[in-house]
Please model this.
Amino acid sequence: MSDLKAIFSSFITEHLNNHQALPISFEKIISNAVFNLLDSEILIEDNLSAKPALTKPKANQPLPNFEQTYIIDQLTEQVKSTGFGPHFHQIIGLFGSIMLQMTANEAQQQQVNDWLEQGYFGHFLMTDFGGPSLNYWQSSLNSTQDQWQLTINKKWGIEAHNLGFLMLVVRQPGKPFPLTFLIEPEQARTLNQSKVGASYLDNSVQLGNVKGELNINASQQLKLGGLSSVNRFLTLVRPRFVKALMNHLLWLADNQRLTLDPQLTEHINYIQNVASSCLAQNEFSIHSVDQVLALKFASNELLLDTVSKGKVASFEDQRDLLGFTKMEGSSYRCFHEIYSKQKRFRQ
Model:
């Protein structure tokens, strides 16, 4: 095929097929989803040529091992029998622990250990009131020679109405990449915090908004490992997040909250197999991030398809599943991050 749908869906499907061949029924779901995401810039500026085949990476780097992943994998397996709700916070907390090991220096890690012993929980604040584009974020670093100040306007943070310590991501004016800061509990307490929306996962998860200003210093920046640490982190955690979601679907089915038919079972098993294949890779390459983006895209679209076909009985479960299509990477963001790496302007 050489139609538009085939051209653009290949940005997702090629990464998935490299792990395991997509079932035809699932490929149709993904192709239709990609087709619906083509925006004005693509339709105007893309040269509409077939996507070249992926090239073999010229260099691979070993992925670090973390003790937390063994615990996460055990908890993810338990989701099959308990649902995601009872384990959600522990899994997300362990993700945060891995992120800190990859980005925090020894002094910062010791600070975090002290706060945890004092009973504080960590929170990660990324989503901004300014929208998805970093250029328009309202949360930013304003620095002078004598002082660093943060303006903060974050939304939809997990349990962000009851803050402990923070990993806070902000814009730096004039720079194309964000900065992350470690905010101590005493500072976080001074920020305005509020619940937003109804809770998720049978009242297990509440989201919140955070607003305010803080004076900080350079020692609070999380920068060990540089920007590449974030990509390695996502390679390690995204497949595990997706596996938890698939196990949550199985739990819903076991509790008569979801209608599981042979095709849906095949699609769930497919995503589980690709996620396991991604996690079996112990090296990081130029394709690693795109592989897990494609996996999250497939997970999103399976959840959306499941809800849209009336397979989920309650409004609350429908909302949970649709919410997870936005959490940890929406389909739009996943597709456009993969697509944007290839410049395909019209001649």
The chain is about 50% helix and 15% strand. Residues 228-254 form the longest helix (27 residues). Strands lie at 61-62, 122-125, 140-143, 148-158, 165-170, 179-183, 192-200, 205-216, 283-284.
